[in-house]
Amino acid sequence: MKKESKASILLGAAFLMATSAIGPGFLTQTTHFTSILAASFGFVILTSIIIDIGAQMNVWRIIAVSEKRAQDIANAVLPGLGVFLAVLIVIGGLAFNIGNIAGAGLGLNVLFGVSPTMGAVLSGIVAILVFVVREAGKAMDRFTQVAGFVMIALTVYVMFTAQPPVGEAVVKTFAPDTIDILAIVTLVGGTVGGYITFAGAHRLLDAGIKGKESLGEVTKGSISAIGIASIMRIFLFLAALGVVSQGLALDPKNPPASVFQLAAGNIGYKMFGVVMWAAAITSVVGAAYTSVSFIRTLNATLEKYHKWIIIGFIAISTIVFALVGKPVAILILVGALNGLILPISLGVMLIAAYKPKIVGDYKHPMWMTVFGIVIVLMMAAMSVYTMYTEVPKLFA
């Protein structure tokens, strides 16, 4: 593999994971919690970034060295476990994708005035076209990179316009007034929960970047992916904080839209349309690709027709949204649910790291194992606490 193409694939995998994470739920969660926690939300972001890096480094390395997809690794750990994991991931991915399609429809509604349903249908067609082209992998990499850069650039502009109190944000990041467990679980779930952490790792496998000789590049790629998502999260947080610190109230029906509109007027509102659409459509592509990658190896027919199953996955998500819809509370709930899937999937990967029949003579670094175990225990405890105590309040 040529150096340029390898670097391009690594960047593409990083952007696929990052843009899978940066969807309508990501935008909604970040602005919603900023309006509640203000500068103290910086602590939640810092905590989630540390957890994200630990989870993703472990998962990507183990998938690369085993040269197997996550569901095949899980089946090798315990027969049937891979099918269970695949079902969890696909259900979570489908739920998330309905929200992604909803966000894409809302983005086109803001930009062109079409109905959110019509916008969702048009966006679904665009996402399907990415997989219809002959070189779908290359098209997906290029598409997510361009959309990712556009999102970040527009959010940076709005952040500067909002003039946030950066000094206060830095202080509260390390000395918060309050610590919100729901916010931490939701952010981690929305960044590396469910299917998201596997998006880039499975893309690298498909591109042939695997084995012990590729571990250095895989580790860098995993950290780069979290870095891209985290940069977007920080910029969006600061933009929202700038608006909130001026005493302006965010619209609870659409918190991220009001951040852009209050910070930069009607131009800002149109920019939000671009950001929301770019965030949503790349998440549609990432969710469909990764969710289907979890079932394609379970059966020869599924493997043969996986591209058409991806297209069907996008079509189903679009049809369900056209019939149902997706409120803010549901986007936060799905993030929390994905946070619950993380300790299961990461726990399976850590067990696999110590099974020679899966990883051969590879020795997983002890510090990574300890880091991973701490994350599994923390996320399991926080997710259970959140589902029982905090999530019901969203619907009260």
From TrEMBL:
Topology in the lipid bilayer: Multi-pass membrane protein
InterPro entries (alphabetical): NRAMP_fam (IPR001046)
Pfam families (alphabetical): Nramp
Entry keywords, A to Z: Membrane, Transmembrane, Transmembrane helix
Keyword Translocase carried by entry: no
Residue ranges of the TM segments: 36-55, 76-98, 110-131, 143-161, 181-201, 222-249, 269-295, 307-324, 330-354, 366-388
Locations listed in the record: Membrane
UniProt main location, coarse: membrane
Entry protein name: Divalent metal cation transporter
Species of provenance: Fictibacillus norfolkensis
